[in-house]
């Protein structure tokens, strides 16, 4: 199979190039291992932060573990879900939950809509 440079690809296949990288492109920067949770999040009209949102604000794995344990102790997540989150953290890393949410994330995110 022949490889193309990005410029050559855009010249030869302009419509496909637009679909692959143009407006409306959605970047995937995290993994949800719980499909039920992902579906629920997609259906919501309003926003209420989930444990994933809190984990995405963490700097280190230790901070994320602390958040997971805190939410489990408060019974905001089940022990089973806490273990799945810990497993994902250990095997795939902190950024597998998505890019870090910095201060002002929601202002930038909502402003781009």
Notes on the protein architecture:
The protein has one domain (31-111). It is built from 7 helices and no strands. The chain has helices at residues 6-12, 14-21, 35-43, 51-55, 61-73, 79-92, 105-111. Helix 5 (61-73) packs antiparallel against helix 6 (79-92). It is elongated, with a radius of gyration of 18 Å. The N and C termini lie far apart (38 Å).
Summary, kept brief:
This protein has 113 residues and is an all-alpha fold. Helices cover 56% and strands 0% of the residues.
In angstroms, what is the radius of gyration? 18 Å
**What level of helicity do the residues show?**
55-70%
Q: Which spans have pLDDT < 50 for at least 5 consecutive residues?
A: none
Name the quaternary structure: single chain
Number of strands: 0
Structural class by SSE content: mainly alpha
Mean pLDDT: 80
Shape: elongated
Query: From N to C, what is the helix and strand string?
Result: HHHHHHH
Tag the structure with descriptive keywords.
113 residues; mainly alpha; 7 helices
Topology:
Elements: H1 6-12, H2 14-21, H3 35-43, H4 51-55, H5 61-73, H6 79-92, H7 105-111
Helix pairs in contact: 1-2, 5-6
């Amino acid at each position: 199979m022949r490889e193309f440079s990005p410029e050559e690809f855009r010249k030869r296949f302009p419509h496909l190039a637009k679909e692959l990288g143009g407006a409306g492109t959605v970047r995937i920067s995290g993994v949800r291992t719980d499909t039920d949770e992902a579906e629920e999040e997609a259906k919501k009209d309003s926003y209420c932060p989930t444990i994933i949102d809190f984990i995405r604000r963490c700097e280190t794995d230790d901070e994320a573990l602390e958040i997971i344990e805190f939410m489990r102790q408060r019974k905001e997540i089940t022990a089973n879900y806490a273990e799945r989150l810990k497993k994902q953290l250990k095997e795939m890393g902190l950024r597998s939950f998505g890019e870090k949410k910095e201060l002002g994330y929601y202002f930038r995110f909502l402003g781009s809509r």
